[in-house]
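QA checklist item 7 of 12: single-chain prediction sanity check.
[x] sequence parsed
[x] length recorded as 203
[x] structure emitted
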Amino acid sequence: MFERDIAKELRYLGIGLHAAGAAIVLVVAAAGYGLVLRPLDQRIEACELRSGELEDRVNNADPLRAEQQQLAGRLAALEQETAALAKRVPDEPLEAEFLSQAAAAAAQAGLKIRDYRPGVVSARETCSQMEIEFSCVGPYRSLCRFLDRLASLDRLWRITRAEVTAARPEGCAMTATLVIYFGLKDAAKDAPRVAKPGGTKHG
C-alpha cells in the first residue's frame, strides 16, 4: 500500500513537473515575443509604411519634377521682370528730365503742352513717388500718340487722373496727373537702376 502511494505521488509529481515546464515555456515564449518579436513586428510595420511612402513619391516624381521646373521658370521670369522695372526707377526724382522727355513726345505727336509742373512727393513702402500736373491740347489722335510715346520711355510712370474735354477748334484739351517713381527701397536696391544726375524743379 505504501509503495503504491509513493508510485502514485511520483506520477502526480511528474505530471506537475510537466505542467510547470509547459508554463515556463509559455512564459519564456511570451517574454521573447514581448522583448524581441514585438519590436521586430513594429519595425517591420514601420518599414512597410515608409516603403509605401517612398513608392508614392517615386510614382509622383515626374509630376513633382515638372511642377518644380514650371515654378522655377515663373520665378526666373518674375526676377527678370523685376530687374527690368528696377532699371526704370532712378535713385532721384529727375522730374526735369522726365518733363523734357514728355514735351518732346508731345511735340512729336502733334500735341501742344500748355502747362506742366511737379507736385506732391510721397514715400511708399517700396519706393517714393512724385506727382506731375500737366495740361495739353491737340487732335484726339495726337493725344493717343502722345500717351503711346510716353509708354515707350525708359522711366516708370502711370496716370492717376485724366480729363478730356469736347473737341475745340484747336482740338481736344486734356488735363492729367502723372506719377513718377524713384528711390527703390529694400531688396529692390540691389537691382540695376538708372544712374543719372539729379534734376531741378519747375515752378
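[x] summary fact logged: Strands lie at 112-123, 128-138, 157-164, 172-182.
[ ] second reviewer sign-off
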